[in-house]
Amino acid sequence: MSGIRFVHVDHLRLASPVTGLDAAPEWLRRQARDASRQTVINLCDLAQNRDVDFVLIAGRLAESADDIPRVLAWLREPLGQLRRRGIKVAITADDWLDSVDVSEVCDVVIRSGERLDADRQDAEIRLDALPAGRTGTADVTVGFRCDSGSGATSACHYLISPAVHRRVMSEFGGDKVYSAGALQALHPNEEGPFGCLLVDTDPGTGRTEVTFEATDVLRFATETIRDAEVHTADDVSSAVLSASQPLARMQTGTLIVDWRIERDVKCSSSIADFSPAEMLHSVRNAMQKGYLGVWPRRVDVVPRDIELLHDDMAASLLELASVLSADAAAVHSLERTHLAELAKGAQLLRAA
């Protein structure tokens, strides 16, 4: 085997809770309490199952310096298990780690101004922290070398810029800079899958293949339901339940969803008929409190098309204003056509 395979992860964010789960059932609160630790276990399982050479933690271990001692104490077991199986661990050090001993959880520490050098000699991988020797948008550089067997040594590199969200950027000159993102989302505004990057490199050809691997236990999403006939809270429950079933089949953990139901509104009907609390209670009961693996965090019914029913434009405007005032959030969902109707009505009233 001449190539080098490793897992790149950015922020572990251990000891930080998952927030935004008000009124969540006990089983979900329990998952949220254990989510960050479970994602590290998922990461270690992935590293062993994929037979990687090493794991690189490029971001912060925790979001507070006060949490570092107990985070390091907890990491001894999962990372120690990797090292006992021959999988090396490298950690980038920030100012929080300068005054603590991390030798019990990793094989090499990469400090500011250093790069990680991975050198394969036959079946053995050697990791060293060496002077960086290059500048650019990357915060961490991983250099790879291997003995081709003929006495020649080939090399390539992999560039990292740690971030909460996964992304790939291009440096000047065409080099790609990778962000693996955090292992687990902590807030509802952190939507989509979170995890790590599985990296296969071949120093002989300079080729690098990067694959995203999800590790998250809880995942946040916003889903929109259109063209559903909803007139009561029970209708809302049926629509959400139907839309949740295909989502549940795609998940291995729990998907926490903010549902947005777009509904045609006539001025003779009231948006206020849909109480958010009543709808949410009805939906959660219909879903058997998360049995499907999809838990509704909130449900909003918003107007899509607003129809003015009266020939008398002034009366229609008054009725429309009454409907909108029942739900201030609806004002922000108006499309340009609705605003044009209001403007036209104002012009007619002014000319009368």
List keywords for this structure.
352 residues; alpha/beta; Purple Acid Phosphatase, chain A, domain 2; six-stranded mixed sheet
Order of helices and strands: EHEHEEEEEEEEEEEHEHEHHH
Give the overall average pLDDT. 79
Query: What name goes with the CATH superfamily of the largest domain?
Result: Metallo-dependent phosphatases
Going across the biggest sheet, name each strand in turn. Answer: 4-3-2-1-11-12
> What is the total domain count?
2
The secondary-structure class comes to alpha/beta
Assigned CATH class of the largest domain: Alpha Beta
Contiguous helical run count: 7
Largest sheet: 6 strands, mixed
- Percent in strands: 25-35%
The CATH architecture term of the largest domain is: 4-Layer Sandwich
What is Rg?
27 Å
- In angstroms, what separates the terminal alpha carbons? 86 Å
**Overall geometric form:** elongated
Beta strands, count: 15
Secondary-structure map:
Elements: E1 4-9, H1 26-49, E2 54-57, H2 68-84, E3 88-92, E4 108-110, E5 114-121, E6 124-131, E7 140-147, E8 153-160, E9 167-170, E10 176-179, E11 195-202, E12 207-214, E13 218-225, H3 233-249, E14 254-266, H4 276-286, E15 294-307, H5 313-325, H6 328-331, H7 336-351
Parallel strand pairs: 1-2, 2-3, 3-4, 5-7, 8-10, 13-14, 14-15
Antiparallel strand pairs: 1-11, 5-6, 7-8, 9-10, 11-12
Helix pairs in contact: 1-2, 3-4
Can you characterise this structure?
It is a single chain. With 352 residues, the protein is an alpha/beta fold. It folds into two domains: 4-214, Metallo-dependent phosphatases (Purple Acid Phosphatase, chain A, domain 2), CATH 3.60.21; 218-351, no CATH class. The chain is built from seven helices and 15 strands. It has helices at residues 26-49, 68-84, 233-249, 276-286, 313-325, 328-331, 336-351; strands spanning 4-9, 54-57, 88-92, 108-110, 114-121, 124-131, 140-147, 153-160, 167-170, 176-179, 195-202, 207-214, 218-225, 254-266, 294-307. Strands 4-3-2-1-11-12 form a six-stranded mixed sheet, with helices on one face. Strand 11 (195-202) and strand 12 form a beta hairpin. Helix 3 crosses helix 4. The model has no long low-confidence stretch (mean pLDDT 79).
